[in-house]
Amino acid sequence: MPAAVATVMQVLRERFPHLDVVHKEDEWVEARVAPDELPTVARFLRDDARLQFNFLSSIAAVDYVEKGFEVVYHLLSLPEGRRKLILKVTPAGDRDNPEVPTVTDIWPTANWHEREAWDLMGIRFTGHPDLRRILLREDWVGHPLRKDYQDRRPVRERQFKEDWIGRSG
Predict the structure, then answer these.
(1) What is the per-residue pLDDT across 63-115, written as a single tens digit (0 to 9) for each?
(2) What fold does the segment set 3-97 form as a domain?
(3) 111 Cβ contact list (under 8 Å, min separation 6)
């Protein structure tokens, strides 16, 4: 196990012994956090001198349908270079109202990532300073990356100059 991985796992387990923390692959560590703990854990990850997870690379929302949603944060420690963390959160609430606290006050890069997850998956980030659509029109109904999303727009037949094997039609 790389030293960077061992350090991250040790520090997290010391501070949050109840968290599920595992070594995934290469230099990635994964930790599962409850939504109500997210702000506390996130601030610790950023501010602790041994960790310094100062860069939020991305936020992804995943729809497992039966299991529900999961929000995945990819964090890097730029000062340490080799420290990488995947933070996973299962939103509070039901399928119609999944909620996770915002981390925009901890990592400003979360702003547009959270807006995208709201727009396309319907994850509400409580406390977000400007949670509104970022990719779709404001009047769009629903969240199209959910697995149960049904597009209500009529299907249009498309005309092609060539069929699928390249012959003129």
Answers:
(1) 999 999 999 999 999 988 779 999 999 999 999 999 999 999 999 999 999 99
(2) Beta Polymerase; domain 2 (3.30.460)
(3) 104, 128, 129, 130
- At 130, which amino acid appears? D
Phi-psi region at 150: left, alpha or beta (left = phi > 0; alpha = psi -120 to 50): beta
87, two tokens? 């933070």
DSSP code of 144? T
Q: Where are the domains of the chain?
A: 3-97
Cβ-Cβ contacts under 8 Å for 130 (sequence gap 6 or more): 111, 115
> Do 36 and 18 contact (CB within 8 A), yes or no?
no
One-letter amino acid for residue 128 of the chain: H
pTM over 0.85: yes
Q: Let me know: does 29 contact 84? Beta carbons within 8 Å.
A: yes
